[in-house]
Specification:
6-stranded mixed beta sheet; 290 residues; alpha+beta
């Protein structure tokens, strides 16, 4: 009679970044990913793992299956979300509390893009392209066939490719542009802001109905510049710092120690093509104040 094997704390710690990373990529929210991670831990700590050959794959599979169920119900809530939806930011870098396997799939730009996928497409893409799962194993998560799972991943990949290659500005350039944009907005410098923005730039604000924010994407450099100046005049922030979220620099803006905005950008040829401002206080809560 074989002996029972249970999950050790050391094994859990070594695989936890993969478990959290799978859940976060599928769901796009830190809170839901943490809930999934806790559920996986509770399940794994109470079962006999003696017949589990690949513990990492088993844990990621459980996280993916749980996240898939959560995502299907979350889609209903997101359809009634007030204004544009942006992913909950994840603090990254050496000082981050939650360690996660980092690559392009955890970037804010990719997570925004993945919101356009169906839950099955999102799960298939993450498990195959990030975690290198075979389609037979993905089918077990989705409750379908390997052929169907392959089609989900293929459609997801095609929809991502249709948007074009994601821009990749250097960290130094992103920080420079964010600081320059902040300085120009504080000074009410319309011309300076317009120079930093591509003519066809898009601004996306997420207030979630909790605070004032643009209910639709804003297009055009001059319109975005005017909006940025007006927001400074209304909120009158008094401090800012550059932090790292989702592997890239972000501009955190504060008023009286409270985080009021978190800005991320996409830059092409030194000019901003997309400016994202997260203002929903529920999504900013885990970033913290100063």
């Amino acid at each position: 009679m074989g002996s029972t094997i249970t999950l050790s704390e050391a094994d859990w710690e070594s695989h936890r970044p993969a478990v959290f990373g799978a859940a976060y990529r599928i769901l796009g929210t830190v809170a839901e990913a943490e809930d999934v991670m806790q559920e996986v831990w509770l399940r794994a700590a109470t079962v006999d793992l003696s017949e589990v050959r690949d513990l990492r794959a088993w844990l990621v599979t459980l996280a993916a299956r749980t996240s898939f169920n959560v995502l299907k119900s979350a889609r209903v809530r997101r359809e009634s979300y007030v204004g544009p939806w942006l992913p909950e930011p994840l603090l990254t870098g050496p000082d981050a509390a939650a360690q996660v396997l980092m690559d392009e799939s955890v970037s804010t730009a990719m997570l925004v893009l993945m919101e356009r996928l169906t839950p099955a497409e999102r799960v298939a893409l993450v498990l195959h392209d990030v975690f290198d799962f075979p389609f037979g194993q993905i089918a077990e998560v989705l409750g379908g066939t390997p052929a169907a799972s392959r089609k989900h991943a293929s459609r997801a990949r095609a929809r991502v490719a249709a948007v074009g290659e994601l821009p990749r500005a250097s960290r130094a350039e992103s920080e420079r542009v964010l600081k320059a944009f902040k300085a120009a907005a504080d000074a009410g410098d319309m011309a300076g802001l317009v120079k930093l923005l591509a003519p066809e730039a898009v601004y996306v604000g997420d207030g979630g109905g909790k605070v004032t924010a643009a209910r639709r994407p804003v297009h055009g450099a001059e319109t975005i510049a005017l909006l940025a100046i007006r927001q400074i005049e209304i909120r009158r922030p008094d401090a800012f710092q550059i932090i790292e979220v989702n592997g890239s620099p972000a501009l955190a803006t504060y008023r009286r120690g409270e985080l009021v905005w978190l800005d991320t950008v996409e830059i092409v040829d030194g000019r901003i093509t997309e400016y994202r401002r997260l203002a929903n206080p529920e999504k900013l809560a885990r970033i913290g104040h100063i």
